[in-house]
Amino acid sequence: MKVVKFLLVLTTILLIASVAGAAENWVVLQLPYADYGHLYNTANGMPGGNAVPYCAPTATANSFQFLENHYPSIYTGNPLTGGNLLGLRNSLATGWTGLDGILHPGMVPPAALGATWQDWWEHKVWWIEDYAPGTTTFKGMVEINPAAWYQGTCLTQGPTTWDFLWGEISDGENVEIGIDFQETPGHALTLSSMKFDDANFNGVWDNGEARQIDYLDPNDPTQLYWGAVSNNLKNGRLEFLWKNCFIPAGKLATIELAYCESPVVPEPSGLIALAAGLAALGGMIRRRS
């Protein structure tokens, strides 16, 4: 995403903090919880409703709400949600006819227990291309070969890495992750925050340092949940302690994929000139010292 890091600093849309304690120095990336949608994975999208196997479309809808709230000058007029988050979620799940007349069957076919990784990715891309064309670029990491998928060349095949996720969150990008458990079907989450204990004060995560991720769970989107990430990869995958109000003690899960939407931010000439001026000033200061 062009000049996003510079824009993030100027507009403070991303909180980057170093919190020092007696023996800890946590570096935190926190995207604002209030900007996300808070739709539940239920038929009516409300707490206590009948459960539906729509975790992927629900996590995606909550992510799309973030894009509209966080980047209103790019997604003007709510083109992704249409002001109806539940309607968006249901269309993503069960299908819609695009503006070009092409029928998209939906992420979750009838009688399915959830979305496949391919259906999740393709329908997310199709929706944005239908209703907000030219506003967004796509990227991600996924375990299986996505070459035959629509826009599959935007994805990198392989285990999702900490550095990849950190880079996307630090750029203020939208990230959904797919997680898996050995004994149950997988689940979809919306990643919102990351942090690590910078024990050696070098500004980057190093092996052995504690780290956590924070996410919205469509089964319980009332709050964010921090989950400790293991320093030992499980079958090459990041493993973390997943929990929500239904499983407060948590259970171990692996991250199988990460799908990201990046708003296309134009390069404002004034900001670029300001950045160049600051760089020149920095050079003068260094030469004088």
Taken in chain order, the helices and strands follow as HEEHHEEHEEHEEEEEEH
Q: Give the averaged pLDDT, no decimals.
A: 86
**Main sheet properties:** 10 strands, mixed
Globular, elongated, flat, extended or rod-shaped: what is the shape? globular
What percent of the residues sit in helical stretches (DSSP H or I)?
A: 25-40%
* Domain unit count: 1
- Count of DSSP E strands? 12
Number of helices: 6
- The stretches of 5 or more residues where confidence is low (pLDDT under 50) are 1-13, 269-289
Multimerization status: single chain
Helix/strand/pairing category: alpha+beta
- Beta-strand fraction estimate: 25-35%
Compute the CA-based radius of gyration: 20 Å
Account of the protein in words:
α2 (55-70) crosses α3 (85-94). 37% of the residues are buried. The protein has one domain. It is of the alpha+beta class. Mean pLDDT is 86; it is low at 1-13 and 269-289. Strands 1, 2, 5, 6, 7, 8, 9, 10, 11 and 12 form a ten-stranded mixed β-sheet that branches. Strands 3-4 form a two-stranded antiparallel sheet. The protein has helices at residues 4-11, 55-70, 85-94, 117-131, 162-170, 269-288; strands at 15-20, 25-30, 96-97, 103-104, 136-142, 155-157, 174-180, 187-197, 211-217, 220-229, 239-244, 247-263.
